[in-house]
Amino acid sequence: MPERNAGGAASGQAGEGAAARVEALSFGDAGGIPNNPRLPALLYRGALPPGDPAAAEARLARHGWTRAWRNGIFDYHHYHSTAHEVLAVVAGTVRVMLGGPGGRAVGLRAGDVVLLPAGTGHRNLGGSDDLLVVGAYDGGRDYDLLTADSGGHDAAVARIAAVPDWARDPVTGERHAAPAPDGAPDGAQAGTKAGA
Predict the structure, then answer these.
(1) Which residues contact 147 (CB under 8 A, 6 or more apart)?
(2) Domains and CATH numbers, the chain
(3) Which residues form the Cupin type-2 domain (predicted)?
């Protein structure tokens, strides 16, 4: 997948002085885990200073990502159909399966952030004893917690499609640029519900 800076450009500085590497990860519908058909998960390496959960919460909140919590990541495949979620690893290390069973396992360490568009499956495959994650939701949206066994796949897909794009990147604060329609050059605007 392409690496970009946190603002979506192929090179240059990310916002707030960070020069985080960003990787876009797309996943197809995995049956019980629908994933997001339009928006990729974004993996930011070294995006936040490690060891300071309050600073991570404050930065995410400045960019509109609220309802923060501190904990780990559930050790079963799950997703949220009503909200985009951001996970900031502030201490320790963890391996996370993204995209549901058969998705992609990624290693995360303190300072890394992953943005999970609504519908994106995720599961903790194992982490260090000192693992601490700060999670938050775009616009403070209410979120549900679904698994492949929750049923209602088609209804979940409809809810995922109704979630508006995030207005601001959780790491940089830059306005979110809607993905280009298939076949359009990068930067072309798709018809989305984004408020940006």
Answers:
(1) 32, 76, 77, 78, 79
(2) 3-162 (2.60.120)
(3) 77-123
